[in-house]
Amino acid sequence: MRMQKVLLLGATGETGGSILNGLLDSGNFQVTALVRPSSSRKPDVLDLVKRGVKVLIADISSPIDELVPLLKGFYVFISAISGMALLAQMNIVSAAKEAGVKRFVPCGFATVCPPGGVMKLRDQKEQVLNHIKQLFLPYTFIDVGYWYQFSFPPLPSGKTDEYIFPGMNTKMRGDGTAPNLITDLRDVGRFVARIVADERTLNRYVFAYGEELTEREIYATMEEVSGEQLEQKFTSDQEIQEEVVAARKLLEREPDNSEALGRVASAEYEYSKYVRMDNRAIFARYLGYLDARELYHDLKPKRFVDFVQDLLDGKVQRPY
Q: Where would I find the NmrA-like domain in this sequence (predicted)?
């Protein structure tokens, strides 16, 4: 089989790095990383070159007629751009259409959520998707739930403290029984490599995940593997909704404040996942997503219990 030429935006990021590993490990793709000029000499970009990854230096905000020649010959374009810069994809979408790219994968790679006022980030993704559809550009939209790496509570002993992102999971939400799709970040790329090579996923939404667990189940697994007893504290649904209102008001007052946008994103994730309970397999199927675990029975994602053991064995890196 002829290897597909893939152009990957965001290869040095957390999601992009996993996707890069998945594509390379599959052996089915010729991968080029698209890097902005200001980052071309950064150590993580130089590391890509050392790994044998081709690098294309370009600014995606450049005029479309300058971008089109650079994109010609690529079969798949995958965007793992920062969640704070989603609308910056509009230009490269137009260029991909003119260049004849056969499949565009916009930045999704998050929790399942319907568009239309629930999450600002999801609505921006929908703007990009609408642009893609208006251009009749072939696409695949992929969501992967929430990462295992962001889904575990701290242990009383402090054994996992170095792997915990600041402020992460110090309390259960609601009563701790909302089920959520969660995935080991290391498995994201494995799923993506299978999905973008599959004609069944063309012009479709696909969700991939490791497990669907409640916070109570996550706590129980942490206790079982670690042998420690965790304290259970709770944040009510009302508190979650009040934080959404407060965060949105702040962003309205300070629309250019990146910290305010980050606060809104965090609050709306909590609301969507734990109050609305959007991030579930049953809801993904209702929205029309294909289930990657049903498509690829031979792909066995890491179980959360095994992730926890990796955590205790020091085999997990803290994102960011």
A: 4-244
